[in-house]
Amino acid sequence: MEEFLYNSLSFIPTSISFVPLLGLVYFVGMMIFWWEADLAKKNRNSIFDQWFFSTLLMLVWGRVTYIITSWDQFSQWNWFYLPYERYGEQIYLFRAMPWRLFSIWDGGFLFIPMFLAYLILGYFYTVYIKKWRWREMMGSVLFSANFLLGSALLLYGLYARDSRVTLNGFLVFIFSFVIQVVVHSIKRFYKDRHDPYRRMSRVLVLFYLVLDIWFISYTFLSQPLINMDRYHIYGFVILGCFMAISYILDIRRKTPTTDDQKTLTPRRISLNQAIRISDKKDQN
């Protein structure tokens, strides 16, 4: 199965550098995030900072975990105070330490830690910085995270000629795509009915999260993994349960009605308006 899938995907141009294709994945993931957020009535300009910082932390943490797990390889390189070396007419950039730590174009990332870092900051940014309802943004964060994980693993497996990684990426990608099609098809069926549409949308997104926790954990924990990836899968299961509880509590939380807002709205007093102060004589 793994070899068949690997050969079937051989049409993907691996002659192109890995980083540009990873940039394409980044761009498509951003469009998916924007599209899902737009369905949640969020302005695209207001969510760009969340996408930027979430993916920035994702890249940094993916690189850091790769360096930690591959330190034996990095420690073999000589240290040099300049970021380049010159031998005759040939110049080598970021080849010596510590500059080699920043040569991200070598594709040195751990993608499962990247996946978890993206979800953590996506939740934190939504709830505590933007102060939005988690029930509105969980679908956007979850769908885009699965797309990024599946696509990155798929491409990396092809470049590294690792059929097992290719299969894992393909399964995550197809799983996310199929679930997204089903969810949006059902939503479209209920779209003309406001209350059933809202209830069905919330149930489907929660169902997707539960199914995603099971699928990701089963797919990766049922095969050999390095400890760093395994610990991050455990972290994803814990985070997923926390996200589900937070989602349910947010659904149960009452949304302020128009009457509540009128009650809570303070009365405005004009600065030019005379204020009458009553005294005891007037009261008598």
Automatic annotation (TrEMBL):
It comes from Candidatus Dojkabacteria bacterium. This is Uncharacterized protein. The chain crosses the membrane at residues 12-35, 47-68, 107-128, 140-159, 165-183, 203-221, 233-249. The keyword Membrane applies. It comes from the Bacteria. Keywords: Membrane, Transmembrane, Transmembrane helix.
